[in-house]
Amino acid sequence: MEQLYNGFVASLSFTNFFACFIGVLIGTIIGVLPGLGPTATLTLMLPFTLKYAPETGLIMMAGCWFGAQYGGSTTSILVNIPGESASVVTCIDGYQMAKKGRAGAALAVVAAGSFIAGTMGIVGLQFFAPLLGNWALSMGPPEYLGFLVLAFLILTALSGDSPVKGFLMLGIGLWMSMVGLSAMDSVPRFTFGSRNLMMGIDFLPLAVGLFGVTEVLVTAAEKYVPPVLEKIRFRDLYPNREEIRRSVAPALRGSVLGFFVGLLPGPCAVISTFLSYAVEKKISKTPEKFGTGMIEGVVAPESANNSAVMGAMIPLLTLGIPFSPSAAVMMAALEMHNVDVGPLLFQNYSQIFWTFIAAMYIGNFMLLVLNLPLVGFFARIATIRPFLLMPFISIICLLGVYSVRNSFFDVWVMIAAGAVGVFFRKYGHPVAPLIIGLVLGPMVENNIRKTLMMFRGDFLLIFDRPLALVFFGLALVLVLFKLGYPYVFRSPGMLPKGDGDSME
Fold first, then answer.
1. Which residues pair with 189 in a beta bridge?
2. Full 3-state SS string of 311-354
3. What does pTM read for this prediction?
4. What is the DSSP letter of 20?
5. Domain coordinates in residue numbering, the chain
6. How much is the mean pLDDT over the chain?
7. Which of 504, 480, 395 lies closest to 153, judged by CA?
8. Distances (CA, A) of 42 to 207, 259, 356
9. Integer distance in angstroms from the first to the last C-alpha of the chain?
């Protein structure tokens, strides 16, 4: 509690408080724009946060993350356009409430539910992260390697419709992480004689290209359809007693469910919203009314969405392993500020951690106070024509990437990544495994080499490491279940006719 108090003292300084306000404001503005979700928001803001101290930069990034997560719900309710993928479920009942004249009530309960969920998630992060960090100190290279393999398998299984495409994108990310000088013996790899590639492919231009430039190009190619904006007045923001009564339990259930889903690899925010909506529909006495403007179908997914963000921070901070693209961008921000995430974070950078926790409390409250009065302003941002907005976003991408290393090579990498990103989106290749593979590639390589050195090339010694054996065993079970279920878990007599011979 003393460390948390010191964190509040540091967060309430003028510089940090203003950085939190700017982060929440910009995050909400970008979050309401269709397609530009939390990952794109964090990626666009990352170059500008590097100009400040680590605490200030991370506080601004946290505010952006919070604001972008909330911003998507505004357009989902008022315009029926999800600002990001995690707000798709909110459109189902949120827009129906707006058509009935209850848009204000929907926005109010979403703001309150997001505040409750964010606060509960921060409390969970505050208490569980240091405990898990202490436990992680007992893990060695074999345990980390096993955990990474298991996390990669879960991530690729949950990313997109095709696990094969997920594995392909993960492999591309891991390969790109090896470009440049080897960390252990300084041998150049995949540089093709280029001096620019000797330093490797930087994370920032690649991420900005895949999320920012790709969105600009895709939007430019689409036909613009003006959205219909449901009007909202400030005096209509108050829900009635019945709506408040029906919102309390779903908000709490969504908060708990979202927090634990956030601990899993994959698109945790999206998964938590669908699970939360399904749970509320399952336990409701009137499930047939879902989709007609049920307030439970609005507040529960949004609460789960915000709580999942806090859950995703635990493996990021304690193990140094991001489970989502947004967490990967946060990890890149920490590393660019020379802050090493992992078990030693709480010993070597305790002041930064507790300032970060306190700033999230402040940012969560600031989000509630800021968004209700300005909800009409934020909603109108979504109606700005793309030909006015996208050039401005393009300039931000160019300036941000060039300002970090003053390198035109990074600008070309960003443009090339944007063009390739259009191809990935058109043919359904998930970008999340590529980004996470790029960030975790060096960790995977180092742990493979250290594990082989510990075992002296004899990988059978893994049986002397029970925890690592559990991780590898779970990974093997997942592979058999996902790829070989019809043939491994069924006898030949149980297979449909012809499958035993053709194996198709």
1. 180
2. HHHHHHHHHCCCCCHHHHHHHHHHHHCCCCCCCCHHHHCHHHHH
3. 0.72
4. H
5. 2-483
6. 76
7. 480
8. 10, 21, 16
9. 60
